């Protein structure tokens, strides 16, 4: 699926690693079920991304006590999944959990996401992937 995007006057999220600072997308990733739900919002309208035929589905969520490497690989796969679906770089994420995480788990998730090339904007409990995507769109830095 490809979304048609009309940029707001203040621009889109900034990809500091892209040539010329090209905008990167901000996504919401919900890790409450067996499989991750990954969503993107454009203009406050969110859509859960679906896997394209011939491509892998959204990644399976590791057990909460999984090793750091598993969480990093999870976020790398989630980022790749979103980039294929959107046909553009993904640079920011809001991570949604069923309940608020403790500080240690929040730090583990943040570090794994950063190592996977995603800037965590917030980790929150009780959000859906769509709500996390809307929050990610609101919190992501804007290009000038």
Key words describing this protein structure:
144 residues; alpha/beta; Nucleotidyltransferase, domain 5; 5-stranded mixed beta sheet; 5 strands; 30% helix; 22% strand; globular
What does this entry look like structurally?
The longest helix is centred in the middle third of the chain and has 19 residues, at 68-86. This protein has a single domain (19-139), classed as Nucleotidyltransferase, domain 5, CATH 3.30.420. It is built from three helices and five strands; from the N terminus they run E-E-E-H-E-H-E-H. It has helices at 68-86, 103-115, 129-139, and strands at 25-30, 37-42, 45-48, 90-97, 119-125. The protein has a five-stranded mixed β-sheet. 30% of the residues lie in helices and 22% in strands. It has 144 residues and is α/β, with parallel strands linked by helices.
Main beta sheet strand tally, sense and closure: 5 strands, mixed
Task: Tell me which oligomeric state these chains represent.
Answer: single chain
Query: What is the distance, rounded to the nearest whole angstrom, between the alpha carbons of the first and last residues?
Result: 28 Å
CATH superfamily: ATPase, nucleotide binding domain
Which spans of ≥5 residues are poorly predicted at pLDDT below 50? Answer: 4-16
Overall average pLDDT: 86
């Amino acid at each position: 699926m490809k979304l048609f995007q009309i940029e707001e006057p203040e621009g889109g999220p900034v990809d500091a690693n892209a040539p010329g600072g090209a905008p990167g997308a901000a996504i919401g990733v919900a890790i409450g079920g067996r499989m991750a739900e990954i969503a993107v919002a454009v203009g406050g309208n969110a859509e859960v991304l679906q896997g394209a035929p011939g491509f892998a589905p959204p990644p399976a969520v590791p057990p909460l006590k999984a090793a750091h490497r598993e969480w990093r690989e999870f976020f790398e796969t989630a980022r790749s999944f979103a980039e294929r679906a959107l046909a553009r770089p993904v640079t920011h994420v809001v991570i949604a959990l069923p309940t608020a995480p403790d500080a240690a788990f929040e730090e583990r998730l943040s570090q794994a996401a950063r190592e996977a090339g995603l800037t965590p904007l917030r980790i929150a409990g009780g959000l859906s992937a769509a709500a996390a995507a809307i929050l990610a769109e609101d919190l992501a830095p804007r290009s000038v």
